[in-house]
Write a structure and sequence with these properties.
The complex is a heterodimer of chains A (303) and B (314).
Chain A (H helix, E strand, L loop, with lengths): L5 H4 L6 H45 L3 H4 L15 H7 L5 H32 L5 H10 L9 H10 L6 H5 L6 H12 L3 H9 L4 H9 L4 H17 L2 H6 L8 H11 L4 H36 L1
Helix pairs in contact in A: 2-15, 4-15, 5-9, 5-12, 5-14, 10-11, 12-15, 14-15
Chain B lengths: L19 H37 L17 H7 L3 H32 L5 H9 L6 H12 L7 H8 L16 H26 L3 H9 L5 H12 L1 H16 L3 H7 L8 H11 L3 H26 L6
The chains are: A mainly alpha (303), B mainly alpha (314).
């Protein structure tokens, strides 16, 4: 406890450095307690957030008798790695097909949406066409109506095209996202014009400038949109449920939901299937989190 | 989803340069090359379905998607009579009343906690964000079969058992309505990390000079700093988060479908419409319901824009 300096405390602005230093010192003294409390709260929250992952792993590698045993086993006495073989050879659970469907759909949807929406966004941002502004507003209007609410109208169109139970039925209608196009347009508006003009001097048209200059210099933004689209596509449920009605067209989410609601398979297989289904996204999280966080911060705020 | 009021003026493209016909034709061709494929898809998969369902909502359309059997507003009147559709709107209202403030407060709280530390910050951020990798289906599975399993071996019942509390049938009882606890916590777990990232981004945009100025001006404690600096500076983020939370709650489907199925006590609008259109093949009522929902969302979006002056701040 340092002694205060009462003689100076009452006087003018020249004492400010002194009082400020005192204040800062006091804050660091109490700051230790605050920091400890902060970390305790952070750790407690982290435990809660990780708890469901622990439950998935625990139950996925257990016998059903371990799961239903009285008392709580932190982990099964013996980890059942052979559950993997059981899951992938169970004829009533075609999880491999479901994973394949999800992978095909998520990859094609991500690629298709990046291609269509980036080009549309670039055209709207950079090409001075007479009708560009009205067309832009016509796209903006569609943002007012969330896609989940229009699943019945969309289903009607897909059924007229005889696309029910097909990959294109699940993939194509989702591609034309006004929101993603809007994000790309905003991004390209801020793209340095000088780079494109250099390309134009080199004799490239809009097409050449876009593919050779703009896209190669926009890797981080494309990656951010790609990661977000991929996750949304992999985790999508309502639309694949409506269109992929036959079990051969189930995505992994629809398959899991069917097993969950019908309770046709045993617990450990169900949890293992859940674990396998989140594995690709956990990998995306581990390796691409930078893009993901950037993408969420950008798209979320603008949404 | 976005409110159009957010949008910067559209006229910031370069002024048209018409140096002869060849140039203009080149511009037109280039524009359609870039925007054309997207527009064609937008018309087929967004505009036509919307118009089609508007038309169909005035028809009797059982087991068919062809309009023609005109019945005027009958589908709408049926839905707006006391019954399952209005019940579903009540369910949504209860759900939103829990999930919107809770997510808002908890994700803001976590963001503030995290923003105040240096060591291990990236680690904690990753941990809170990780549930975003999970689908609603997987989370529902864990909540239904493990955490809130109604039998003895469920985690919640195990813990309650240590304190001598009897098993609770979390999802199968309506008095008290414990299923709300299950429904709300599953969405909290899935979405808090996402909104925390939004708040973190907002917090990092606040200039440190503002805090220094506040300290000079005599902001005494953390609460005053939050009340007079942080929270007002987060206004744009907060408004966006509230709107997103509300719109997303409105579209709740996955966790209700997987946890409660077609149960009459808690059926949000999309679940009701799903069973109307896919289950009963009643596309007339299904499309009328979709139109009502779309209108409600548009009204909420516009009203929120009006009230908070959405977008003006940015």
């Amino acid at each position: 406890m340092s002694a205060p300096t009462p003689t100076l405390a009452e006087s003018g602005p020249e004492t400010r450095p002194e009082t400020q230093r005192r204040k800062r010192r006091r804050m660091t003294a109490g700051g230790v307690v605050v920091a400890v409390l902060r970390y305790l709260a952070l750790i407690a929250s982290a435990v809660l957030f990780l708890l469901p992952f622990y439950l998935i792993v625990r139950n996925a590698l257990a016998l059903d008798t371990d799961i239903t045993a009285p008392g709580w086993q932190l982990f099964p006495k013996q980890l059942q790695w052979e559950n993997f073989t059981e899951l992938f050879t169970d004829p009533s659970v075609n999880i491999a097909q479901a994973l394949l469907n999800s992978a095909i759909i998520a990859v094609l949807q991500t690629a298709g949406m990046l291609l269509l929406c980036s080009m549309a966004g670039y055209g709207l941002a950079r090409i001075p066409y007479r009708w560009a502004t009205p067309i832009f507003y016509a796209i903006l209007v569609t943002l007012m109506i969330p896609p989940a609410v229009t699943f019945i109208p969309s289903f009607i169109i897909v059924s007229q095209l005889h696309w029910v139970d097909t990959y294109q039925g699940i993939i194509v209608p989702v591609l034309f996202s006004g929101f993603t196009t809007f994000l790309f347009r905003q991004y390209f508006l801020n793209f340095p014009r000088s780079l494109e003009e250099a390309a134009r001097v080199d004799g490239l048209g809009y097409f050449g400038a876009f593919w050779r200059v703009v896209v190669p210099n926009s890797g981080a933004f494309f990656a951010a949109i790609a990661v977000i689209t991929f996750i949304a596509s992999w985790n999508a449920f309502l639309w694949p449920l409506v269109i992929g009605q036959d079990s051969s067209m189930w995505t992994v989410q629809v398959a899991l939901s069917t097993f969950l609601t019908a309770q046709t398979i045993n617990l450990h297989e169900l949890f293992l299937a859940a674990a396998v289904s989140i594995l690709p996204l956990v990998l995306v999280f581990v390796f691409l989190q930078r893009y993901l966080v950037q993408g969420v911060a950008e798209t979320g705020i603008k949404g | 989803m976005s409110a159009p009021t957010l949008i910067a003026p559209a006229a910031d493209t370069a002024p048209p340069r018409r140096r002869g016909r060849g140039r203009a034709a080149g511009v037109t061709g280039a524009f359609w090359l870039f925007v054309g494929p997207f527009l064609v898809g937008l018309v087929i998969f967004v505009y036509i379905p919307i118009v089609w369902s508007l038309v169909l909502s005035f028809s009797r359309a059982q087991n068919t998607v062809t309009p023609g059997d005109w019945i005027g507003l009958q589908n709408y009147l049926d839905l707006l009579r006391p019954g399952p559709f209005l019940d579903s709107l009540i369910t949504f209202t209860i759900f939103a009343a829990f999930i919107v403030p809770l997510t808002f407060a908890l994700s803001l709280g976590l963001a503030l906690l995290l923003n105040g530390v240096r060591i291990m910050r990236a680690f904690f951020r990753s941990v809170y964000f990780l549930p975003t990798a999970c689908s609603y289906v997987v989370a529902s599975l864990v909540w239904k079969l493990s955490i809130f399993n109604g039998v003895r071996f469920g985690l919640a019942n195990t813990i309650l058992g240590w304190f001598g509390v009897d098993n609770i049938a979390w999802l199968a009882t309506t008095s008290p309505p414990w299923y709300w606890l299950v429904i709300v916590t599953v969405r909290l777990w899935l979405q808090i990390g996402f909104y925390m990232i939004l708040f973190l981004a907002g917090l990092q945009r606040i200039s440190p000079e503002l805090y220094e100025a506040a300290a000079v001006d005599g902001a005494k404690n953390a609460w005053q700093t939050f009340r007079y600096i942080t929270f007002p500076q987060l206004r744009a983020t907060s408004v966006a988060v509230l709107l997103l939370l509300l719109i997303n709650a409105y579209q709740a489907f996955d966790e209700f479908f997987n946890l409660l199925g077609n149960s009459s006590f808690a059926r949000p609008p999309l679940v009701y419409l799903y069973y109307t259109a896919q289950g009963n093949q009643d596309f007339g009522h299904g499309t009328a319901g979709a139109v009502i929902l779309a209108l409600l969302i548009m009204i909420v979006t516009l009203a929120q824009g009006r009230i908070f002056g959405f977008g003006k701040a940015e």
